[in-house]
């Protein structure tokens, strides 16, 4: 008797029309579907929305695994309902990546505070309440350097702010939101605090890090499948740059394109060695993560820290992306398929 091929759903967010017309032919995940089929796994589309969560639950109850690409915030909605659904399916034996509990350990901005003592860390503060934020942020700003504030969960620059003392008015602070289209503003500190109250709703909290002076050198994105580096990205990250001289609107420069590189690219070997030989073990130990539960595809974003006395680069963790990592280098496709097959076998 022929052995039935395992079935994996590729899940992304969409509306009713998107679900009714979903196909993997010509879709952004067509490459993922192709390599999965190449290792003997049947792939099918699964469009999710809170409005038809029960329908998606019924579909996913009939598959062996699900690979998920849904941002922490989608059209002003969070992942609460979806994450509970995925936990339920996982409890019934469906393989889920990334699992919601793994996301909570490594895919929120709190990871920056929890791993601050690692070599990728920096002077990082955590504010759990709006009262703590009001009380302690002034002391952080008094250190003299601009600070970068990040909400607990978010994407696309939403809830990421550069904050610094006003150069001439002690009653004001200068702020810039990283959300595209935002402008640099001068605000009274009390008004700024009021704007931030929404970030503390529910389990919300704020992470506070120093602004990295080498932001102008861009960001390195390290892509991983499980505990193996599978590629890199390099991009100019301009959202928190000061407005160009003479720019009346106060808008930051437009972001540059992201370029993708295979894992054996010479320029990125120092960070690859640090990730695979040092940082991963330390992160898993601190966050209580079993290496075999690391996501099928995830990435860590690094800014350049101060150079060493010998001129070597250092790196500062900017964030870890787990919920919806796409696009990624083509070299990651085959490792994604092979890792999925191994997880299903286990």
Q: How is this structure best described in words?
A:
Helix 2 packs across helix 10 (333-345). 28% of the residues lie in helices and 25% in strands. With 346 residues, the protein is an alpha+beta fold. Strands 5-10-6-7-8-9 form a 6-stranded antiparallel β-sheet. The chain has a 5-stranded antiparallel β-sheet with strand order 13-12-11-14-15. The relative contact order is 0.15. The mean pLDDT is 91. It contains 10 helices and 15 strands. Strand 8 (172-177) and strand 9 form a beta hairpin. The chain has 3 domains: 7-97, Response regulator (Rossmann fold, 3-Layer(aba) Sandwich); 105-120 and 213-330 and 338-345, D-amino Acid Aminotransferase, Chain A, domain 1 (2-Layer Sandwich); 125-210, no CATH class. The chain is globular, with a radius of gyration of 21 Å.
């Amino acid at each position: 008797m022929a052995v039935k091929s395992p079935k994996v759903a590729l899940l992304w967010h969409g509306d009713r029309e998107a679900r009714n017309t979903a196909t993997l032919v010509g879709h952004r995940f067509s490459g993922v579907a192709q390599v999965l089929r190449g290792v003997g796994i049947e792939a099918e589309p699964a469009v999710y929305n809170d409005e038809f969560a029960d329908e998606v639950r019924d579909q996913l109850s009939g598959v062996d695994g699900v690979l998920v690409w849904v941002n922490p915030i989608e059209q002003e909605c969070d992942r609460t309902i979806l994450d509970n659904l995925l936990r339920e399916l996982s409890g019934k034996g469906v393989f889920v990546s990334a699992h919601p509990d793994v996301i909570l350990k490594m895919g929120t901005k709190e990871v920056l505070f929890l791993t601050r003592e690692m070599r990728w860390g920096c002077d990082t503060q955590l504010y759990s309440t709006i009262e703590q934020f009001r009380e302690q942020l002034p002391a952080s700003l008094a250190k003299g350097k601009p600070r970068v504030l990040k909400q607990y969960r978010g994407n696309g620059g939403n809830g990421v702010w550069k904050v610094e003392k006003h150069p001439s008015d002690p009653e004001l602070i200068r702020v810039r939101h990283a959300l595209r289209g935002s402008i640099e503003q001068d605000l009274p500190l009390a008004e700024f605090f009021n704007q931030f109250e929404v970030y503390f709703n529910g389990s919300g909290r704020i992470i506070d890090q120093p602004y990295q002076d080498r932001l102008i050198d861009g960001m390195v994105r390290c892509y991983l499948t499980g505990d193996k580096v599978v590629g890199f990205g390099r991009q100019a990250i301009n959202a928190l740059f000061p407005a160009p001289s003479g720019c009346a609107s106060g808008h930051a420069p437009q972001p540059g394109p992201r370029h993708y590189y295979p894992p054996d690219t010479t320029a990125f070997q120092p960070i690859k060695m640090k990730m695979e030989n040092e940082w991963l073990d330390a992160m898993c130990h601190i966050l209580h993560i079993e290496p075999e539960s690391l996501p099928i595809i995830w990435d860590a974003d690094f800014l350049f820290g101060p150079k060493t006395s010998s001129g070597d680069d250092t790196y500062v963790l900017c964030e870890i992306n787990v919920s919806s990592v796409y696009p990624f280098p083509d070299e990651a496709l085959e490792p994604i398929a092979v890792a999925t097959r191994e997880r299903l076998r286990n």
